[in-house]
Amino acid sequence: HNIITLGVNLLDNVMVSAYSEAAMAGVSAVNQVQFLFQQLMLGAGDAAVVLGSQYWGQKRTEPIKRFAVGALLLGAALGLLFFAVSAIFPGAVVSLFTDDPAIHSAGVEYLRIMKYSFLIFALTNLLLSVLRSVETVRIGFWVSVSTLLVNGGLNYLLIEGHWGFPRMGVTGAAIATLAARVVELVVVAVYILCIDKKLSWRIRDFFTWDKLLTKDYLKLVRSFLLTSLLFGGAVMLQTVILGHMENSGAGGSTIAANSIASTLYQMLKVAIVGAASAAAVLIGKAIGSGKMEDIKSYAKTLQLMFVGIGICTSTALFLLRVPVVNLYAAISPDLSAETYQMALDFLAVLCVTGFGTAYQMPVATGIIRGGGDAKFTMYMNIISTWLIVMPLSFMSAFWWHWSVPAVVMVIQSDQIFKGLPTFLRFRGYKWIKKLT
């Protein structure tokens, strides 16, 4: 599911890059806003997984449906908030990431359509998270397949104007992605109401909620949302730094190169994200069923698996970096040599820092947070990202005027040093908390 979802992003990037480098950079700028929103929805969804999996361990499904309604209301509120900001201040939003007029124009054009996808994505993601908490995961795969087919087909027709369709550029890409999001929600709704047997949803269930259970969810989700906001906000600011670096001489090239590198990295990072999600369900279910010895055994085994995933991910990234960047160069008519080299440099940095991500991220968010301890991850991100990495990133870019790859290394450095506090917290087992 995750790899196909990110495959849609890679497909968007490659197909838009064939239109122009400015269009790709503009789409990438808007995708930073989408990334922040998606991180918030992933946080809200992860909270649903943690709470729901503990009820699932007790074989109690009715409470899951009750608090899920509160989760959907929260997601809808956040979706409408992002829609309103994007509708009222589109130019200001894109201006955060670039001063280049061509990139700014493409970004505003893309955001004009994409703002309608926020609410739809929120509902789809939260429904899939609730299903994941009861170990229903295959529907996520089929949802992603439908998205890939719809998005890819409409991209082909609308970006360049094939088969008699108008040549719409970034607007065509936005329409294709919005259509794919609508199809996602329809597929999930049909599955929940007509096929799923574990939760046995009915339409009336979406209008029935329990105040106490919703309060439990909202109490838990606060830490998840704050952690997601801190992480997503940091990634946004990192893109702002790269887009405004005076010493790079080409903010647009930097944004385009970062888009290429981060898209490939996110494709490979799905193994890490998937492992973290599976770990959260496994640990939460064990806590809910009261199998304390199983929890420690699962956690130790998962920790070793994450190290192996890190080795495989970094190796694959190293081997694929040149072929993928060459693909962009072959397709894009105006991909500059500077963008090409920057993308390779960025990927070289990610080969190193990605190994740290593969260990600390799934242990912190999958095992520790999945065990009910959401505050550790929140505090660790506040200290490492906002008190250490972000100040150093600004100083290295605008005070010390380091090279772009060196600044990227500083930006990604927390992925390495967060491993030690994560390991120490894991060994203490104080993260095991019963939430139901």
Describe the structure concisely.
By secondary structure, this protein is mainly alpha-helical.
The tally of helices reads 16
Q: How much of the sequence is in beta strands?
A: under 5%
List the helices and strands in order.
HHHHHHHHHHHHHHHH
Task: Please state the structural category.
Answer: mainly alpha
Low-pLDDT windows of residues: 246-251
Mean pLDDT: 83
Radius of gyration: 21 Å
Instruction: Give a quick account of the main beta sheet: strands, pairing sense, barrel closure.
Output: none
Which descriptors apply to this entry?
single chain; mainly alpha
Topology, element by element:
Elements: H1 2-17, H2 21-57, H3 62-88, H4 90-95, H5 101-114, H6 117-133, H7 138-158, H8 170-194, H9 211-243, H10 251-289, H11 292-331, H12 337-368, H13 374-399, H14 404-412, H15 414-417, H16 419-428
Helix pairs in contact: 1-2, 1-7, 1-10, 2-3, 2-5, 2-6, 2-9, 2-10, 3-6, 3-9, 5-8, 6-8, 7-8, 9-13, 10-11, 10-12, 11-12, 12-14, 12-16, 13-14
What does this structure look like?
There is one protein chain. Helix 3 (62-88) runs parallel beside helix 9 (211-243), helix 10 (251-289) packs parallel to helix 12 and helix 12 runs parallel beside helix 14 (404-412). This protein has 436 residues and is mainly α. The chain is built from 16 helices and no strands. Helices cover 82% and strands 0% of the residues.
